[in-house]
Amino acid sequence: MLALKDERHVVEASVPGLADLARVTVEECREALKKLEGPDSDSRNQEHDGRRIERCDGGWLILNGEYYREKMSQDDRREYQRDYQRKRRKRLKKGTPLAGEEAYDRAFKRGDDPDAEQEDREAALKQWRAKEEL
Questions:
Q1: Which of 57, 82, 87, 133 has its CA 20 to 30 A from that of 40?
Q2: How far apart are CA 109 and CA 89, in angstroms?
Q3: What does the pLDDT look like over 15-54, one tens digit per residue?
Q4: Are 53 and 32 in contact (CB under 8 A)?
Q5: How far is CA 56 from its chain centroid?
Q6: Are 1 and 53 in contact (CB under 8 A)?
Q7: Are 68 and 62 in contact (CB under 8 A)?
Q8: Where do the domains of the chain lie?
Q9: Segments in 6-100 forming alpha helices (H)
């Protein structure tokens, strides 16, 4: 149901439709829905007395949908960071240049001295500022 909810946390479906998607019988689906609609004193989240869904026009409302949206976005962020760090560590282990190092190396191989270019730019800027002050 979490995969089917819209931005308002509403799952628009019928019992037979949900049963078909879940690959269970209609009766098993009704039992599951009854359990999700009922209070759960053992639930870690006691908002709505532990109920997970509520019947509404055209389907069901996921009562703690915002919690799951936030949790998923945090999980997505963690997964992105994990992948990024894994790739970065692999690149560093291989000795692959970091951002900016490739351009510096190319300039150096062409015979350009990137440090000298920076010094030239700084000297030109000083000259320009001196003229502006006059």
A1: 57
A2: 27
A3: 999 999 999 999 999 999 999 898 877 777 777 777 888 9
A4: no
A5: 29
A6: yes
A7: yes
A8: 10-63, 69-127
A9: 15-22, 26-37, 65-94
